[in-house]
């Protein structure tokens, strides 16, 4: 289907403004020759504007790690889709397992955020994934399928470019464990079939599905060689410019 690889750095609650900008200054020269991969950085909120300025003139895009579903209002501590757009964000990560686990976000809230992002013209990166207990009990497909259906409730897509899915097995995030390429491909294939049921084969065939969970320069290439793995959502290994550039350059 000619899906263009997409590699996203999720810095989570790490890096000061100076550290974020310093990363960009070191990282951009390392990927200056990469033209066949889309790249995005997702720093903490306070670094969005400075990183946006530092990325100007480059092909690297800006992403946010979360957002609220309302455009404005009495939601202390929250950030709206319009604020993200104003800061230069092209993408927003939604439904990350850490949001679900630590902040009680459910599929209903995630769905409202997905719809709000689409309305604002921001591409949502919808995260899905099972826990170790769910995998051990044979519930991987039930969990992932439920999160896809729940997170995409009421979503109508004209183009598969408007949304991105990210499969992150919770048991592989920050643990050093990685789903084998075959295990990851099995879930990615299931996810694409699920997307086909929702949007039809043509749209589903153009939606990029990323893998996340202890992705490193050493395993990025073999993961990316799988038929339905179209990129990576990278946590720990995105913290250092050399390491993240190594993942971006998986085929170079």
Look at the structure and give the mean pLDDT. 96
CATH architecture: Alpha-Beta Barrel
- Could you tell me the number of beta strands? 8
- The CATH superfamily title: Aldolase class I
Class, according to the CATH hierarchy?
Alpha Beta
Molecular shape: globular
Strand portion:
15-25%
Looking at CATH, which topology would you report? Answer: TIM Barrel
Low-confidence stretches: none
Order of helices and strands: EHEHEHEHHEHHEHHEHEH
Q: Whole-number radius of gyration?
A: 17 Å
Structural class of the secondary elements? alpha/beta
Count of discrete structural domains: 1
Q: What spatial order of strands do you see in the largest sheet?
A: 1-2-3-4-5-6-7-8
Number of helices: 11
Residue share in helices? 40-55%
What is the strand and helix layout of this fold?
Blueprint lengths: L5 E5 L6 H14 L7 E5 L5 H8 L5 E4 L16 H7 L1 E6 L2 H7 L3 H14 L2 E6 L3 H5 L3 H12 L12 E4 L13 H19 L1 H6 L1 E5 L4 H8 L6 E4 L6 H8 L4
Parallel strand pairs: 1-2, 1-8, 2-3, 3-4, 4-5, 5-6, 6-7, 7-8
Helix pairs in contact: 1-2, 1-11, 7-8, 10-11
């Amino acid at each position: 289907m000619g899906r263009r690889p997409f590699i996203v750095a999720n810095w989570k609650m790490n890096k000061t403004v100076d550290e974020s900008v310093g990363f960009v200054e070191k990282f951009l020269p390392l990927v200056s020759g990469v033209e066949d991969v889309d790249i995005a950085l997702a720093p903490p909120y306070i670094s969005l504007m400075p990183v946006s300025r530092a990325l100007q003139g480059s092909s690297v895009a800006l992403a946010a790690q979360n957002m609220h579903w309302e455009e404005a209002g009495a939601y202390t501590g929250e950030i709206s889709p319009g604020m993200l757009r104003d800061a230069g964000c092209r993408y927003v990560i939604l439904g990350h397992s850490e949001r679900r686990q630590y902040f009680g976000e459910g599929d209903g809230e995630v769905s409202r955020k997905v719809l709000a992002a689409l309305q604002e013209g921001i591409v949502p990166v919808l995260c899905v994934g099972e826990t170790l207990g769910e995998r051990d009990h044979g519930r991987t497909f039930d969990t992932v399928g439920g999160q896809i259906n729940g997170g995409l409730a009421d979503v109508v897509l004209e183009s598969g470019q408007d949304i991105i899915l990210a499969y992150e097995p919770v048991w592989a995030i920050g643990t050093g464990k990685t789903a084998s390429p075959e295990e990851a491909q099995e879930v990615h294939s299931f996810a694409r079939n699920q997307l086909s049921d929702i949007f039809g084969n043509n749209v589903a065939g153009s939606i990029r599905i990323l893998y996340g969970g202890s992705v490193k320069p050493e395993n990025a290439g073999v993961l990316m060689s799988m038929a339905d793995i179209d990129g990576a959502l990278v946590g720990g290994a995105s913290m250092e410019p050399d390491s993240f550039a190594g993942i971006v350059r998986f085929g170079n």
